[in-house]
Structure formats: C-alpha cells, structure tokens
Amino acid sequence: MAQVLDPVKTAGPVPGTATPSERTARRKALLNWIAVHALGVAAALFFVLPFVFLLLTSLMSDQQTLTRDLWPHPFEWGNYRKVLETDGFLLWWRNTLLYAGLGTVLTVVSSLPVAYALAKFRFRGRHLSLMLVISMMMLPPQVVVIPMYLFWAKQLDLSGTLWPLIIPMAFGDAFSIFLLRQFLLTIPDEYLDAAKVDGCGELRTLLKVVVPMAKPGIAAVALFQFFYAWNDYFGPQIYASENSTAWTLSYGLESFKSAHHTDWNLTMAATVLVMAPVILVFFFAQKAFVEGVTLTGVKG
Fold it and tell me: 234-258 in b/e burial notation, b at 16+ Cβ within 10 A?
C-alpha cells in the first residue's frame, strides 16, 4: 500500500517566515544590542533631554511656562524675535564674534610657530622652555588678574573694552602651544627633511608641509579657543563690565535674565541663541576636532 505524503510537511518552511531557532537568535541579538548600548542610550538621554526642555520652554507663552505643560501650544516663535529686538543683544552678539573670532585667529597664528620649534628644533633650553609652557598652564588666571588689570586699565587705559582680552592672544597660549606641540610630534621628520633638501626654509616648510599635515590639530586648538572665548564670563566681567557697549553674550545674558526674571520663555530663548552657534560649529567640525584631540597624545 503506497504511503501518502503530507504536502505541508514535505514542502519545508514557508518562504518569508522565520523558524523558531531563527526567531530565538534574533531575540538574543536584540537583547545583546540593548545590553551593550543601554549605557550609551542612557547617557545620550541624560545630555539631550535638558536641551529639549530648554528648546520647548523657549517656544511657550508667558502663561504656559508657569504651568506643568511640557509641550508648547501654540509654538511661540515670536519669542526669538523679541530677544533679538532687545536693546543691546545684537551688539553683544557682534562683540562676542569679534572676541571669539579674532582671538582664535591670533591664538593659532602665534602658537603654531612656537609649537613647531618645541617639537622639531633641537636647541639648548628646549626642555626648560617646555616646562615653562606647562607651568603657565597650571597658573590660575585669578593669580595675575590684579596686576594685569592695573596694567591694561591704568597704564594703557583700555578698561571698558575687549582689547585686554584679545591682544594677549597674539602672544601665544600655553595650552594651545602644548596641544599643537604634541600633535606636531606625530609628523615624521622625513617630510621636513625632504622639504629642506628641496630648498625650503623653516618658514616655508612650516607653511607648505607642516600646516597641511597638522590641520586636525589646528582645528582642535581653534575650536578649544573659540569655545573658551565664546563662553568666557570672567574676562568680560573684569574688563568690560563698566561699558555695556562692550559686553559679550555670556555677560549680557546675565543682565537679560535679571531684566526678564519672570519671563522664562524669553530667558530660555536667549539661552538657545547664545548656545546655538557653539553647537553648530562643533557639529560641523567634530570629525577634525576628535581626530586632532586623539592624535595629540600619540608621542611624548
């Protein structure tokens, strides 16, 4: 008697459906992914949620900010217009761009040759010079603020301006010199020797060989300096507090908050406008920034 075969059993698994073992493997893979990335996701939420709250509050009305509502209804985009129309806000923005932009350029231009000399030149006192640079990094700015203020305010009569903060950047920065020096140590000397064999002097070697190869390090230093100047509160408070036309955003924001201490939506909108340029700059330059910071510690 012939055996009758079940067509369902003989056909095998239906195409497009997963077997129990495959579903178990997928479930294990998903659980492993969650376990590995849970800490990262939690850290991301820890940093992102305050910014989300800040942004949502800046889009609320005056009455809604005093309630428990977390979602704006409606979205008050006019809060940003009110902040920009506040007397002095655009002036503070211009002053901050001048301070951060010009200060960053001066710091990079003045620190790079010094870092190049400490990294590639062999001269007597090189290690002593490096130790002096490191010691300047450890010196708190509060220690020298009184004599520096007396010099800039009494001797040069530059109080009430940002020039006492900008001009010193033309003479190098200890942290920038050290960071660039560490990065330049990763550049092989063979490239510099080849350039000198072709007839390049030290300055031309620096501009034609070192600078193109040191772009990640330069970008890291520039971003560090830009962020520092943009967020600097202590310096403008010391030198520019007596002149409101010389205030920066970090210092002017304190005055804005005092004038609108009950208008949390406007205060948050002003805070967003102060933070936005820094976040955008880092977002577009993060690759060069991370690469520059990573490579600075390769050689000692």
Answer: ebbebbbeeeeebbbbbbbbeebee
- Output the CA torsion sign for 132, 100, 58, 49: negative
């009950």: which residue's tokens? 262
pLDDT tens digit sequence for 202-228: 888 888 888 888 888 898 899 999 999
Please indicate, yes or no, whether the overall pTM of this predicted structure exceeds 0.90: no
Contact 133, 174 (CB under 8 A): yes
Angle, CA of 164, 167 and 169, to the nearest 5°: 115
d(CA 46, CA 48): 6
